[in-house]
Amino acid sequence: MRTKNSIFIATSLDGFIADQNGNIDWLHQIPNPDGDDMGYRAFMGEIDALLMGRNTYETVLSFDMDWPYDQPVFVLSTTLNSVPKELEGKVFLKKGDLSVILSEIKEAGYHHLYIDGGKTIQRFLEQDLIDEMIITSIPILLGGGTPLFGSNDKRLAFTCTNTKRFVNAVAQNHYTRNRD
What we know:
Blueprint: E1 4-12, E2 16-18, H1 40-46, E3 49-53, H2 54-62, E4 73-76, E5 91-94, H3 98-107, E6 112-116, H4 118-126, E7 132-138, E8 146-147, E9 158-166, E10 170-177
Parallel strand pairs: 1-6, 1-7, 3-4, 3-6, 4-5
Antiparallel strand pairs: 2-8, 7-10, 9-10
C-alpha cells in the first residue's frame, strides 16, 4: 500500500499561508458564529499521522491550548534534538531524505499523512509526493508573506474534484493529483 500524502490548508487570495510577520491571525477575520470547522474534523478522521516542518510545529506549540492532535506527529527538523516531556510518544523528530522518512513512517503502519507547513509542502511538491490538496481561500490579499507554493521545475497536474463554500465567504477546493 502506497502512502497517501494530503494537504489541508488555508491561504489568502494571493496564495500566502502567513503574513509578512509570520502571523496567521487573518485566518479568523471572517465571522463564523456557528464555529463551522469547514471539514477539518472529517479530514482529521481520515488521516493516520501528521508530518510537519519545525516552523509549523513551533507555531502550534505557541498556541494557548493543549496539544491538538490525537494522531502521531512527525516533525522534520535538522536543529531540534528533543520534544517537551509531555509530547514524548506523540511527537517524533525526523531528519534526512523524504523518501527514507516516508518509508519509515509507512513501515510503522501509517499510510495517510497530513502534510503541513509551507517549506515542507514545497519540498513534497518538488518531489511530486502530494496526492491531494484541500485548499481553503480566505478572501483577503496580504500582499506578501509565506507562500504556499514555491518555484518548481516541473508541472504537476491536479483535478479539482470538489468545491464548497463556507460561512458565505470562503471557498474550499479539493484537488487530486493526476498520475496518468
